[in-house]
């Protein structure tokens, strides 16, 4: 949390609240998440600066001012709130404007908040190395097939490679593979062209449907909406298609959830998922 659909909605909801607002102060409650490239002058560098734009670059949100930027990479547990009274222990940073108060919270402190100038964006790890934006017009079927061509990685590992596709996390990688009926451990080069095309279509359909669901839910900004997921974190629950128990597997160090009947493994596996 948050993943791509979440970030789209966060961006949508923050833009009308923050654009043209002036920063009055920045309160750093826990500096462990801060990456200060201003030379120790966060307060003076940002005071009275006006929010101009909020852009998304893969898993990053870039808050743009005239000559400065605040880039937030929330990673696994970062969250945002516009509640001015938010005081819980996971609070890390408060940005006080002449209107709303934007808070960044992170109970694991894994996320990062960068204060910097635009020319320093390349110093943020992975910021400039993002692959094709999955929600952009550049994400075409032909580009996707080209990226997958001769790739030997497991399909789930490929989906989460941000240098290729920007950007999927654990939850939506699982949901997309379920929609495409592909086992997460299937190597890309074992997929047929038809399966690759279905995977491409599933990426677009799952992301757009999830964005629409989260938007309609209209939950508080800091709430993770996952009511719509079909397999993620649903181990031993019945598959919504066939009723088989959802299973969990380790894929390159990450938990992956799938239906062993709808997403049959190709070739011999160490585990017989259908009987385990």
Automatic annotation (TrEMBL):
Entry keyword annotation includes Cytoplasm: no
Biological processes annotated in GO: base-excision repair
GO molecular function: 8-oxo-7,8-dihydroguanine DNA N-glycosylase activity; damaged DNA binding; DNA-(apurinic or apyrimidinic site) endonuclease activity; lyase activity; zinc ion binding
Domain of life, per lineage: Bacteria
PROSITE patterns to which the protein is assigned, alphabetical: FPG_CAT, ZF_FPG_2
Domain (FPG-type) ranges: 230-264
Matching Pfam families: Fapy_DNA_glyco (PF01149), H2TH (PF06831), zf-FPG_IleRS (PF06827)
InterPro entries: FPG_cat, FPG_N, H2TH_FPG, Ribosomal_uS13-like_H2TH, Znf_DNA_glyclase/AP_lyase, Znf_FPG/IleRS
Known cofactor(s): Zn(2+)
Limits of the Formamidopyrimidine-DNA glycosylase catalytic domain: 2-111
Keyword DNA repair: yes
Keywords assigned: DNA damage, DNA repair, DNA-binding, Glycosidase, Hydrolase, Lyase, Metal-binding, Multifunctional enzyme, Zinc, Zinc-finger
Catalytic reactions on record: Hydrolysis of DNA containing ring-opened 7-methylguanine residues, releasing 2,6-diamino-4-hydroxy-5-(N-methyl)formamidopyrimidine
Entry similarity comment: Belongs to the FPG family.
Protein name per Swiss-Prot or TrEMBL: DNA-formamidopyrimidine glycosylase
Species: Leptospira stimsonii
